[in-house]
């Protein structure tokens, strides 16, 4: 009986010394609390609202003030992904990630000065076909300038932002398979070559994904991908379909329980 009690006591002590499980924090009472991290998604910026995807810089600044006043810390997406993969042991309490999709020129003209002023890290998901080509998009030189600030990370949004559902209906199975591979591989290679960065994360165009697309992305070398499912993300989510909140100019962050 004494030996059994001794063994039980030793086991309890050992368990109390174990680190928290990945994706969880240990509270002061020894319980476990799962980390829930919001990822925000923006597209375009400007002094006035030009379309449903535009957020004015005044609105963005007020949103960032709201986050600061409520104790949020903006971290890099890479930090969360590394934490998910077990490469980091912890994250700051009240962590939050900011992402911007597409590569619109207003990211450089309107958002970038604000990011430099307040030192806010952001991950840009861009599709290379538009860069230095389309009138609405940034140039490669602008992206290189932003890279030098150390505040922005650059990742893939496929090569030219296709609607995979439409393409699957339009193309024969073999053609669709090659099309997906090209969109994933060509974007990754172009960004890595032009910007000298590691590209292993992907934002699904229009938030469209399925098991087939996920498998293709993994095969192309992506370790994480983001959707547009509106909820906080945690390690219980599929890392190849991490949810994000699509933010518009009329959105108040409090509606997402931030």
Report a brief summary of the structure.
The protein is an alpha/beta fold and 258 residues long. The protein contains eight helices and twelve strands. It has a single domain (35-256), classed as TIM Barrel.
Characteristic key phrases:
258 residues, TIM Barrel, globular
SSE diagram, text form:
Layout: H1 2-17, E1 24-26, E2 32-34, E3 39-42, E4 44-46, E5 54-56, H2 57-69, E6 73-75, H3 77-84, E7 95-102, H4 106-118, E8 122-126, H5 140-148, E9 152-156, H6 164-170, H7 173-195, E10 201-203, H8 211-219, E11 224-226, E12 245-246
Helix pairs in contact: 6-7
The oligomeric state is: single chain
Instruction: Kindly provide the radius of gyration, computed on alpha-carbon positions and rounded to a whole number of angstroms.
Output: 21 Å
Tell me the strand percentage band. 15-25%
> Biggest β-sheet: count, sense, barrel?
6 strands, parallel
- Do you know the CATH topology? TIM Barrel
What structural class do you assign from the helix and strand content? alpha/beta
Number of helices: 8
CATH architecture: Alpha-Beta Barrel
The structural domain count equals 1
List unreliable stretches of 5+ residues: 1-33
What distance lies between the first and last C-alpha atoms, to the nearest angstrom? 52 Å
Overall 3D shape = globular
Total strands: 12
CATH C-level name: Alpha Beta
């Amino acid at each position: 009986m004494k030996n059994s009690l001794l063994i039980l006591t030793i086991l309890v002590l050992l368990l109390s010394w174990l680190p928290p499980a990945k994706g969880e924090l240990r509270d002061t009472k020894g319980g476990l609390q799962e980390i829930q991290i919001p990822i925000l998604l923006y597209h375009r910026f400007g002094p006035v609202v030009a379309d449903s995807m535009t957020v004015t810089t005044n609105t963005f600044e007020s949103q960032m003030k709201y986050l600061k006043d409520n104790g949020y810390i903006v971290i890099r997406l890479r930090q969360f992904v590394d934490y998910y993969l077990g490469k980091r042991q912890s994250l700051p309490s009240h962590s939050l990630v900011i992402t911007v999709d597409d590569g619109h020129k207003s990211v450089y003209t309107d958002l970038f000065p604000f990011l430099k002023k307040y030192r806010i890290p952001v991950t840009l998901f861009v599709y290379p076909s538009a860069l230095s080509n389309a009138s609405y998009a940034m140039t490669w030189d602008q992206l290189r300038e932003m890279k030098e600030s150390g505040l922005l990370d650059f990742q893939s949004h496929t090569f030219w932002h296709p609607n995979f559902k439409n393409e699957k209906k339009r193309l024969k199975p073999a053609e669709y398979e090659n099309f997906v591979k090209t969109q994933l591989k060509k974007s990754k290679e172009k960004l890595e070559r032009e910007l000298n960065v590691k590209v292993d994360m992907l934002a699904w165009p229009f938030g469209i994904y399925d098991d087939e697309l996920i498998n293709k992305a993994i095969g192309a070398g992506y370790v994480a991908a983001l959707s547009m499912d509106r909820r906080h993300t945690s390690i219980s989510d599929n890392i190849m379909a991490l949810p994000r909140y699509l933010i518009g100019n009329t959105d108040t962050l409090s509606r997402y329980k931030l």
